[in-house]
Amino acid sequence: MTTTLAAIGWPDLLVVVGLAYAAVIGVRQLASGQVTVGLGLLAMAIFGTLSWAGAEVDLPIKVESETVDAPLLRTLAELGAVVAGAGIAVNALRALRTYRGQDDFLRFHRTLIFVGVIVLGLIALYEWHFAERLPIRTTILSLGGAAVFIVGLAMQTTLGNMFAGYELQSERIIRKGDMVQMGRGGVIGHVAESTLRTTSIVTRDGQWLVLRNQDILAKDFMVLDRPTRALRQLVPFGVAYEAPPAIVKDVALGVLRGDPHVMADPAPWVELTGFGDSSISYSMRFWIADVRVEEETLDRVRTRLWYALRDAGIDIPFPIRTVRMTSMDDERARAQATEDAAGRAARTLAACDLFDERAITSAERREIARDAVELVFGADDLIVRRGDRSDTMFVVAAGTCTVRLPDGGQVRIPAGGHFGEIALMRQELRTADVVAGQGGATVLRLPRPSVAPVLLRRPDLRDKLGTIVQERLEATGILPAGSGPKRRANPLLAALRFLRPW
Description:
It is built from 16 helices and 16 strands.
């Protein structure tokens, strides 16, 4: 072995080991989806090995009176190393930004960094091998002049979009993740990515809108995230003439002040805007912190306003005359039945560990209970079917329920237990069948619009439900065990994993 090593020589041995190592890392990177880095390392390993073994091919390059024999295989190996190095540099910078909690690079920036590193690598190779024998001025004038003219003429539109894209990104006009609106009353969406030629926007309807960078600068558009993300909202409503304006304003302001997405500064306010034929008109004016919560906030404010006005005895009149003949006894009986049902639902929630006194207040339980529906099932009756779409969860008021998992396992849920959290939190398809126990079951169905406002005000309860959802997704086999949220990877550890050949 000693004689063989001496015959090869330590420098050559190190070259062979380095090329073999680059080949192994290249194959592993290709398998993991890093095509640029993998192909660059493999090219360096393959062509470098051939050149080292003596299978070099000299390629004569003649420029004016100068002729240079360029070693083809060695040059290809060095170009592979430059490409791999550019890919590694981009990935390293992205990992560092992610670790620091910053936004990822736009595709335009990644391409710019990649091309920049390659240009620097090519300049280094030129200075190393050809600078003395082939002056760079001669090379550029001979090979580059005509090519630049032809390419520039053919790519006039593309270059225009590229310069527009550079202007968009260099001046930070739009950024990845920004919510933008194309003109007043136009399409609203967030910036998904930006290339050298185009910018892609995902609209609120989930459509993928692709715009040329030149078109973006040529049209009016609004960046809804700057100078701040705060936006003012307007919610008009009307109430009966019998309601005193001061009371109406207090009720509406109470709704606004109790919503987690309505900003306290600037303060919300309610103003009387007019006297109509059948109602007094009011307007709720308030600010929200982000346009991304606009639709759900408006829905929640309008819903809670309806309940608040009803609880205060204030009518929202119809724009028509309605004559309704009813018995006062029937009205009282109907109101009492509604009150009794809400009271039973609140007591059922208080017996559940998710909604007891330690988790939420009695007023919040009442808020959830007012829309809860009590359902009674006989033995083995199907309560929830796997694959159904819903956004409600259930609390067992009496009896027991059985969850039938996809793998054949069963989980018994006693009174005070709960199920359906996945549908409520993630609004996804039901993951298991749930049936009533042998003695039947009484369950309380909780719709998402009633529970969501409480979850927004109670982040600890939201986190607890999120943990339950994660555990139950893992129990049903939909998610692998331990697939919950992870900490951001340390760039140094990521680099060590990259260098590991296995």
